[in-house]
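Chain X:
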Amino acid sequence: MTNDKQRFLSQQIIENACEWAIMHGVAFRQADNTARHCPFSIAPMAMEREVYEHLLKVTPLITKLISHVSEDHDFLQSSLSDMAKADPFFGRLMALHQQAHADTSNSPTRQPLLLMRTDFMDDRQHGAKVIEFNGIAAGMGPFGQRATEFHAFMQSQWPNAYQDWLEDSAAVPAENQGLEQLAYAITASARKVQADFSAEGKPTFLMVVQKNEDNVYDQHLLETALQKRGVRTVRRTFEQLSTELSTGDNQRLMLDGVGAIDVVYLRAGYQYSDYWAPDLNESTCCHALSQTRLFIEQHNVAVNATISQQLATSKSMQMLLTMLPAEDYARWGLSLDEAQLIKSVLAEMKPINAETIEWFNRQAVKHEWVLKNQGEGGGHCVFGEDISDTLSQISPEEYDAWALMQRLYPHERETPTIAVRDVEQAVVDDLVSEIGLFTAYFNGEPMTQLGGYAGYLIRSKPASENEGGIHSGKGILDSLTLVG
């Protein structure tokens, strides 16, 4: 490949690939109701099989841990109280949690369904480490499976182009059933709830969504997979639900015009704007719609994410679990071996206080750290020299909303690849990847056909870019091949 012309693929291949993406729902909705394809790589990344198998082993254990932590309500209240004072949104969640669990004789009847995505980077020096836990709106499992299918399509339809850009010609594609396994877990959970009421017919799945959202096709792919399994699906915003929910016999959750609900899946609820309804003219922000979320949890229905699960997958809880000795995990039913496996993938984290700030400014190698707040999605991380500026601007009252975390530097792809965005291709020489592994547990038990594991999502980005989200950053959809 001596010049750009030889490096690029024909426009015919690019258009064919983009049409495949649109046709298979790998797209974002535009404001005018048209669709644009998600950005994607033309060929997959490679990972050592041993590293991948370690992640397959450890990730369900992380979900087992989070599942038990999320139901340890006293621990959540005591360990996250300082963070709740420092972060108004999590303060609201903690107040809801307290409201839900204060009366132990009348605890919430919801059944916890933990659909979780644990994001990792394979650091060059330290190996694969957790970036974050995603317990609410942990989507894009359908896109993960579609990316694997897309690369299989490329291999079949354009084998020379695929091989030219493949990182390792001996690599074997890693199986990915993200969409199918999530649908399996949700369907099985729905039928268990339905059985509690001896109900017949199709179980009903309610997806709580954001108004005018553009990331709808990933959601619709999951709904279609559920429909194929005999599940009825409906979509509502919190604002709609505030006037449409009611209580049936034996704490059955009822939706006007639909009937009984078996599973509630929140693709909204991780930011204030999801609970804000201007028409309500509230004196306290977001009270009415957050009470709708609490109302859901007071019913016998499978819920992801519960308020407890959202607290248990926060950055502050990640830091606490990282800092705890492995022996302390016994509180949540994990053996020492299981705890040590989990600890092997947790990157170092530090709380923000006056002592840490002084250490960071005087002694730390600044590019080895990232500063994070509690926010979900892109735009919530501060890097390198900018960290000192941010630390100087936040007040001591806000310290507990932030944490320092060891910055991960994943392996750059050994060969360049082509990234396709808006039907245009670009050669990227320094692509790095993040792997999110999906898991599904219901009432603390694994719910997939793969022991709780439910497929993966690969997002890649240029190493020079900090924000790697497909939706909010410079990321592209990718898939995984295994070597060794």
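Chain Y:
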Amino acid sequence: MVYSFLLAAAVISGPVANALSNGLAVTPPMGWNNWNSLGCDVSEDLILSTSQKLVDYGLQDVGYDHVVLDDCWQDVRGEDGYVTPNKQRFPNGMKPISDELHKKRFKYGMYSSAGEMTCARFAGSLDHETKDAENFANWGVDFLKYDNCYHMGRMGTPEISFNRFKVMADALKATGKDIALSLCSWGEDYVHTWGMSIAHSWRMSGDIYDSFTRPDDLCGCDVNNPADPFCIAPGTHCSVLFILNKVAPYSDRSIPGGWNDLDMLEVGQGGMTDEEYKAHFALWAALKSPLMLGNDLREMSAQTLSIINNPAIIALSQDPHGRSAQRVMRNVNVPKDEYGIGETHVWSGKLENGDQVVILLNAAGKDIDIKAPLSEIFVSEGPGGSSKEAKSDWEIWDLWADRMSDADAQSILDAKDLKTKTGIFKKLRWYNSAEKSYAAGLAQGDERLFGKKIGNVKASGALSVKVPRHAAKVYRLRRPGGAAKVHTEL
């Protein structure tokens, strides 16, 4: 039986698995989605008022340029085969929302499912892909989150799932409008091997929830072996650590135009500590997951704002090299936390300008001294310390060192008018990716994207850092003399 399943996986038909080359999602998409915090409590007012919050709080200017309406926008599918929006929640329909978002320089995202129903049990798109794609194009949609609920049994091998999702990919293409496709396929049927052929991102696990390490039966795979390829119940309530462990064996599948999607961000929801949220955000950025805020921006704390607006961390996500960090070390022989979980990781990845991102993650029950030799940090360039990178000196730059202060973040949240907010950002000299792209800022050595130099590591040496419980240290290794340039613009 196992042999026949693997054989089916090997004979998938369709195009070679290369990322789409249509100019969409060349870096991981960034934006906001309502589902994690608000679920079905959606409306025209919510979408438009939240888009204004993204502007007011400077989040659009650091890259959050998608506003995505999730499930529950639908009414019924009419006799003509088209789904209509809920008239009470969206009295003016979808096109005026799209027009307003485009005026504000946002991309408009919507939701459906490759099933007979969506996950909230509204009309799904299965066998109605052409008409739904026409709707989305006519409404000015730029991004489609495409879920996996109620698929009428059309899964079980890569070929079956590929063909089901490809129908919508083809229908979107046939409209003639550029619409990025985000598959929410839960990691089923080896999506990481074929998702990039038809989509711009693909979910690689069950749904995240607001916990750092807590196991939950609703996250159906084996908590001790989350990478199990035969998991048949991806589920929900998957912790940050579970998702990291599941993606680790194939984190390298992300390339420009096609991204492993680790699910939406939980930062600011209230179930994790500040250090846990910092680790969550930084790892999602370094692993090139789309950065979709999931918190209610109308009730955001200063601490939350100062995590999600850190340009030095976002620059990892938007780095032009477009390759994910990989886990190079894992240690499970450490003290356990209150959930019986305990492990440490070292994640490492090459960046466009020759820098290296290194993240030391402590998911154990107490503070841990983590040692990461250059031979392991650069193992992808050559094992056993054989690479020239491992034999070089490096500067250590801390990417959280210039995090916005709580006082400054609160002043932005409290400001009553655009002039006041603009003045605060100008005084802080905060990075604005609308004025200078991350690619340009990195190439120019803009200091705001590099954090602060805190030390050095000698050739063939090691990083050795005490990392607090349930936290991560996030560094750029830079070659000596490659320090960031002083930014003097006002």
